[in-house]
Amino acid sequence: MKNLVDKKIYLAGHNGMVGSAIFREFENLGYKKIIHKELSELDLRNQSSVEEFFSEAKPEVVIIAAAKVGGILANNTYRAEFLYDNLMIEANLIHASFLNKVEKVVFLGSSCIYPKLAPQPLKEEYLLSDYLEFTNEPYAIAKIAGIKLCENYYRQYNCNFISAMPTNLYGPNDNFNLETSHVLPALIRKFHEAKVQGKDSVTIWGTGNPLREFMYVEDLANAIVFMMENIEAKDLYDNGITHLNVGTGKDISISDLAKLIAEITGFDGKIVYDSSKPDGTPRKLMDVTRINSLGWKHKTELYEGITKTYQWFIKNKL
What we know:
With about 325 residues, the chain is α/β, with parallel strands linked by helices.
């Protein structure tokens, strides 16, 4: 394991759910030289601004947790923005890392990079083996481009740039906006509000049949630091691997998830499924054999993670 505590680390996207969890993990582990900059001060889509920042800050390690993210509705509504913004953010950060001789880059993608009907569980080698789910295709294409940028800066310039593909995440600082959020935080808010307002039912998009994997964001933060300290680019690319999956290796149906969240929030009414709304990909489960074999495994099970997230929601969002 490399001791990187004294390295200058630039954490891009430190205000988001993922970035803030990584920041807390760094603090807990004694990392002191964490560079971050408010997005209001630095537009990561602007190449000259990013390159000027890098030349001044001179980071030695870069973690790319910055991205434009959202659920099915947001992905399908803001298709051009999801493609453009994410392409520009990752391209600018990865290229600036190359120009400034950054020692290590860890790029965060998403499990939606995999084909819609890929075999389950999703192995790393299934990338680009078939067509993507239409509703989040722009976001997926942007993230695939980020993986390929990291891979090919290694192949052409021997840059130590690697990629992590997390499963669906949830936890403190999640987005609970019903129009732009992912399914788990949206359900927490829906069930809580229904309980408070005394409603006798909650309506959920789709049939409830799709299977999804969810990981508590603190576990991802732990995985990112593990990869930063232990995984080198040559370990992946020289073995024909472009990235590492990060997840729990367990999934749950949306209907069972809804029942679990109803229980945790204390809602005892009826759950109604609106099958006129899209389900998205039928199943999305990550094969985490590789990262588990390298020494990392998730710690937080779903009931505990959702309980902690609901407590955070009560304290911070109401």
